[in-house]
Amino acid sequence: MFTFTPSSGSDRKRPDQPWINRFIHYKVCTTFVKKANNNTECCCGGDFSEHEPSRVHKASSGEVWYKEEHIQKMKGFHFGKIKFVEEDGTHQPEFVRIANDFMDKKTSERRIMELLETKWKLKRPNLLISVTGGAQEFVCPPEIEKRFKRGLARAAKSTDAWIFTGGTNTGVMKLVGEAVRGTSFGSQIITIGMATWGIIKNREQLGTTAKVHTAEWYNILEQAKANKLIWEYATKASSNKKRGAYLDPNHTHFLLVDDGTQYNYGVEIDLRAKLEQKISERYSEGGVTLPQICILVEGGPNSIKTLLETIKLGNPGLVIAGSGRAADVLAEAHKLSRIEEAFDKQGATITVRTLSDSSRDEVYQVIGKKFPNSPPKQKEEIFNWTLELLSHDRLLTIYQLEDSKAFDLALLAALIRGNAEGSSSLASMRLAITWNRPSLAYSLILPNSKFSNKDKADLLRISILQDKSVFIKMILDQGVDMKYFLTQERLSGMYNELDENVLCYKKFRGVANCKEGDKLTLTLPYIGKLLEIILEGTYKSEFTTEEFKANVKETKNTTFENPYDLMVVYAVLTESHSMAKLFWERCKTPIATGLIAYKINTYLASVQRSRLNRDEENERL
Q1: Which of 150, 327, 416, 460 is 20 to 30 Å apart from 173, CA to CA?
Q2: What values do phi and psi take at 351, rounded to 5?
Q3: In this prediction, what percent of the chain has a pLDDT beyond 70?
Q4: DSSP state of 320
């Protein structure tokens, strides 16, 4: 429901259309043609009341329904924010109704990324997690549900991941929603639900079919332009439709995919696959695509097919063994299989898993038990999909979820196994650094990787900014040339990533004459000036000389004679003591550098004491 204030549109000029209204379209059935065996239902799947009244007419006698002819693209007010009426109203996810073939054109690919980045203002992810599994018939052991929810939330948060699901309040989608809601940081985890528009209960509440240029149309238009278009949506036994599903209230965003038909599940599958792939390519760095993984929890036959399509694109899959049905079929088949060597299309040796004749019979029996109501043809499809999945041994990981704290480890291991070849190993290493899993880096990444000097420099920079000393040492041991790494531009760039909570941050703002509220931009002369202040005249920085300041722009790629000494100073100023020790052990002038580090630490300790005394005084007042 949308509340608006009537007003006259007769004396208005036609206003500009909102961005979504201009560029995003959906589909509607424009002709009600009765099914041969059902007088109340259209060939599109819905009854007459489920068609948009201003855009549908009843077919003439004898008219035949054709999807290409009777379904047309439309634009309207099916976007905005959703206010779930049974919730407290603080969480109002964004949504858009969008055509299933929207990404078939290159221009539309650009538009959908513009929607995510500019209109929804989503920050760049470090990982894509696509969750698939059971919906209406979802049955998963409670203990596995609990571990999965806690493990998924922790993994997504620690990597700034985006999670994709089917978006409805059923099965594994509901489980994911509960996972991100059941944490103190739930609102920060981007969880995008991609559901079929035509199966959503109460979908008529998510938009309007108001005629153009009426008072209602103008009022809604004004709300849309102000980004204040909010639709009230009820989800608890408020629909008289037996078919379909409600949206899950815990997702952060929804793309509701429409092909003009109704009650036809799976309309979103193709668009979802294309969008996930586009996002992965969009956020690639240095030829390395954004890592993505598909997680299967429980699931029906289509879940196995979805996992297979993901793996065929070269993306790893993680199967939660013991969660039920599809996941258990794959886990059992994997256990019964044997590893053999084969050749890929390029002639390279790969490992595949195969089944003996007796093992094939056992897998058939498991399929029969897990899917007793499936017809023989579908059981044959499940078996063939399973066989094909086993042939992608490197990309398929079976995981027994025994501890939620180890889930992120399993997720990372699956990504590393899947990305073990080529430039993808760089993406795996970045994830290992983010998750602080050096053991996996040593055992699974380094033995299969040859990083370029540029890659090593990138990984070292990430490790320094995240204060991961074990990884810093690991990368230095790979033969990093610190003179190549530490340019003037890179050093100042790392200082500009300073956390606002470090003790010297306010002092840096002072020496840079940075006003409150303005963005702090540090140059090497500012850094040198602060060091001279801290060291009280006992130190003269080369960064503050007139010659250096005059040539700083032209020498941004210039390196330093003693890079380790400068990194000790950086580490101490950023309060990274283990990092400081690591660099100090490698510097050329350990005694002089150690004295400078001691002096800086003494200064920072005095700043900390002053801050504590001020806080105590404020408490007394």
Answers
A1: 416
A2: -105, 140
A3: 91
A4: E
Q: Enumerate long-range contacts of 53-59, CB under 8 Å, 24 or more apart.
A: 53/209, 54/209, 54/211, 55/28, 55/30, 55/209, 56/28, 56/29, 56/30, 56/31, 56/32, 57/30, 57/31, 57/32, 58/31, 58/32, 59/31, 59/32, 59/33, 59/34
Residue 560: both structure tokens together = 């330093």
Q: Is 520's pLDDT higher than 90?
A: no
Query: What pairs with residue 198 in β-bridges?
Result: none
Q: How far apart are CA 278 and CA 246, in angstroms?
A: 28
Name the E strands within 383-458: 396-400
At what angle are helices 106-114 and 269-282 packed, to 10 degrees?
Answer: 80
* Rg of the chain taking only CA atoms, in angstroms: 29
For residue 83, give both structure tokens: 């206010």
β-pairing verdict for 31-32 and 79-84: unpaired
**Amino acid letter for position 170:** T
Beta bridge partners of 293: 129
> Mapping DSSP to helix (H, G, I), strand (E, B) and coil, where does residue 83 land?
strand
Q: Which residue is associated with the tokens 């944490």?
A: 183
* Burial (0-12, 13-18, 19+ Cβ within 10 Å), 91: middle
Among 122, 119, 216, 133, residue whose Cα is nearest residue 176 = 133
For residue 248, how many C-alpha atoms fall within 13 Å in the half-sphere facing its CB? 30
Residue type for position 531: L
d(CA 600, CA 380): 71
- What is the dihedral sign for C-alpha 470, 473, 477, 479? positive
CA-to-CA distance for 45 and 35, rounded, in angstroms? 9
Tell me which DSSP letter residue 258 carries. E
Across 389-405, average pLDDT: 87
Q: Can you tell me the distance from the alpha carbon of 244 to that of 167, in angstroms, rounded to the nearest whole number?
A: 12
Please choose, from the candidates 129, 131, 109, 112, the residue with its C-alpha nearest in 3D space to the C-alpha of residue 120.
112
**What span, in angstroms and rounded, lies between the C-alpha atoms of 338 and 336?**
7
pTM given for the model: 0.80
Running DSSP on this structure, what letter comes out for residue 593?
H
Query: Which residue, among 112, 160, 179, 131, has the nearest Cα to 431 in the 3D structure?
Result: 160
Closest to 250 measured CA to CA, from 181, 161, 197, 182 = 181
Distances (CA, A) of 611 to 535, 575, 607: 20, 16, 6
Q: What tokens were used for 365?
A: 């029996």
CA distances in angstroms from 556 to 61, 422, 506, 611, listed in the order given: 77, 31, 25, 36
SS3 per-residue string spanning 16-33: CCCHHHHHCCEEEECEEC
State how far the Cα of 495 lies from the Cα of 489, in Å rounded to an integer. Answer: 10
pLDDT at 416: 81
- CB distance 327 to 297 below 8 Å: yes
What ranges in 67-170 are assigned the alpha helix state H?
Answer: 67-70, 106-114, 142-159
Q: What is the DSSP letter of 450?
A: -
Q: What does the pLDDT look like over 69-98, one tens digit per residue?
A: 999 998 888 999 999 998 888 889 999 999
- Quote the CA–CA distance of 61 and 339 in Å, as a whole number: 62
